[in-house]
Amino acid sequence: MNMASRKRTSTLCLCAVTAWAFGSPVSAEEFVLVYHEASGSGSARLLDGGDTEFGGGMTFGPTDPSMSFVARDISTQPGVLAARSKASGRSNINFIDGDLSIRVELSVLYLPSNITGGDNPGGMADGELSSVIEFMMPVEEVEWVYFLDVDDTVSFEGSSSVLIENVTQRQELVSLNEGMDGIVETTLSANVGDIIRITSEMEGFGSTGPAGTREYTSIFGMSLFMIPEPSTLMLFAPAALLLHRRTRRPEAAGRCGASVVGSPTFEKVGHQSGEVGHLRRSSETGTSGNARPTELIDIRGGVTHNHDFGTVCDAFDVHG
Q1: The pLDDT of residue 296
Q2: How far apart are CA 165 and CA 105, in angstroms?
Q3: How confident is the model at residue 298 (pLDDT cuts 50, 70, 90)?
Q4: Which residues pair with 128 in a beta bridge?
Q5: How many percent of the chain have pLDDT more than 70?
């Protein structure tokens, strides 16, 4: 074993001894899905003399993370020449890197062809959805983001309600009965082990003759993010510093040793199409003039992404 390898090995051993000495294994707490019961159904029909189409769905088991349904009636013309009536809904829970994302939505719509000569017979659709989700708080405080987005047009209407409560403490946290302007970003505080329940009830219906797009759409999205603990971030600081000092090249120290790198800053990037957003870490520039490229740091949920709720925004992407 050469000198560099021995130094690296001794530093890694120091990391292990430091963790043992503090008596705190480096492992993040995680959200636990306790209960999920959801069901939905709907019907759709074009006013072209055809039959009504039906669809429904439900969860299977108390911790099934997903429920969805769709009822769709499409006219006989191909592609963009066809008209559509649709009722659909879903209730989904996603765990991504220890964070939790929830999405509940209902949509009923009529979509005519916008092409000359395409179908526009008119149509109807109706649907309803009920969802109860319970999860256990893994820590006393987490970052909390939520929204309720409701869109309706002439001749299509509905209602939506979302209740969020701490069941263990018998405490109502949030009650939503109509669409919100924007997204709420706050902190959720509770005791470790408290059960948080989200109850959603949605229904929509409508009928129209030949017309433009008609819809009632309701989307509830919520994400919870773990807050890094300073003690965890500082645990390996002495060993990491020693590793840096032992492994850097002398000539590099001479070239960059005078540089003073400022602390990175974070800025919230706005959301589009229901995205919750993300944090951008700005470039870090030292006195030497060298800069690190800007990085995107996904803060989830389901809020853009560098990957697939699969990703949070996919989680919050609004579908027609």
Answers
A1: 38
A2: 19
A3: very low
A4: 41, 203
A5: 62
Q: What is the pTM of this model?
A: 0.67
Query: Which contiguous run of DSSP H or E holds residue 16?
Result: helix 3-22
One-letter amino acid at 45 equals R
CA distance 8 to 3: 9
Local structure of 213: helix, strand or coil: coil
Q: Which pLDDT score is estimated for 181?
A: 80
Q: How confident is the model at residue 79 (pLDDT cuts 50, 70, 90)?
A: confident
What is the Cα–Cα distance from 34 to 97, expressed in whole angstroms? 18
Under 8 Å CB-to-CB from 123, ≥6 apart: which residues?
A: 44, 45, 46, 47, 73, 83, 84, 85, 110, 207, 208
Q: Return the closest-CA partner of residue 56 out of 46, 66, 70.
A: 70
Beta bridge partners, 219, equal 105, 149
E strand segments, the chain: 32-46, 53-58, 66-74, 84-96, 99-111, 123-136, 141-152, 156-166, 171-176, 184-189, 195-208, 214-226, 266-269, 278-281, 295-297
Residue 186 has pLDDT above 90, yes or no: yes
- Containing 232, the helix (H) or strand (E) segment is helix 230-234
3-state secondary structure of 240: helix
The pLDDT of residue 260 is above 50 = no
